[in-house]
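Kindly go through the entry underneath: sequence plus fold tokens. Please state briefly how this chain folds according to its tokens.
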Amino acid sequence: MDFDTSAFLRDYWQKSPLFIRNPWRGWNNPLTPDELAGLACEHGVESRLVRQTAPRSWDLTDTPLSSADFAEEDTAPWTLLVQAVDHHIPEVAALLEQFRFIPNWRIDDVMVSYASDGGGVGPHFDQYDVFLVQGLGRRRWQVGARCDERTALLPHDRLRLLADFQPTDEWVLEAGDILYLPPGFAHDGVALGEDCMTYSIGFRAPSRAELVSGWADHVIDLLDEDDRYSDPDLTPAANPGEIAPQALDRLHHMVTEALADRHSFARWVGALVTAPKSDLIDWSPMESVTPQVVEADLAAGGILERNPACRFALIRSGSERLTLFVDGDARDCDGAVARLAEQLCDHASLKVDPAWAGSPEIVGLICDLANSGSVAITPSV
């Protein structure tokens, strides 16, 4: 993709919207509308169907969808949205490779939408960064001012639509064009004609409340009930109704000390940001993979491939040591195993080094990951 990533991060990332005219070296739409509709009806796939029933009114149908939902005789503009399509379609997952200049742990998923002429989900804002890649057809995007929790919304149980949308910029995207939107910017996309498909590459940004609450809950689970406040050096109180500064210091220290363990926090964060998006699908193989099978496959060469639905990340703890996180599970690695883990986090697929078969530690890691459905070894073509 012909795109200056350094300039983008410096000038636009989390700062202002950017329209990018087709930067691909030959754009190829990776998914057909029929394939998307079929995926939307599969068990465990999160999808929504949004119909605009009036100028300022939208109706939402949630998962599970069926073919009957698409067969309704309805002239109202409609939009189908399917989450995490990259977890199911390798060709869609391949789109993410062009956006790896942003750390993997920030990537959420690729949502794909298909809209009839005039279809859209209404003016709204998101709390995360998104790249909107036009796959098929044309869509008009209007962008407005930045919004926050005080922004007025239309009354709707499940759709957060803006009550007063005032566009300040407008672009018409054609196949291969990209619109980047930072968090909070109001926007509204409307299909211009039939067969309008858009790939929304969304990024995660944990809220402070989510981090504080989750980390505190984790720490609480590890605390000893007998670890209590004590003051063996207590002296007579000048005023029994006062909470003395020394007592406040002790109470504050009890809390902050428990929460301040950076090593434990790093391990918890690694598990948090790699937790699977959905627990509805089990990717593990039907039959367990044995170390002997892994050794033979490695010796034969081939490609070690990551499951695109699995999340990989690492945190270093030394020059030759790191912790590998895969779908919320932590694995401590050092030496050659750490170097392999580093490559797995950096590449969606690796050419197998037959010498790996001679390392019980590498065989053990790959065997473990294969049995969880996180990796697979495929023969070279």
Summary: DSSP finds ten helices and 17 strands in the chain. Residues 5-203 form a domain with the Jelly Rolls fold (CATH 2.60.120.650).
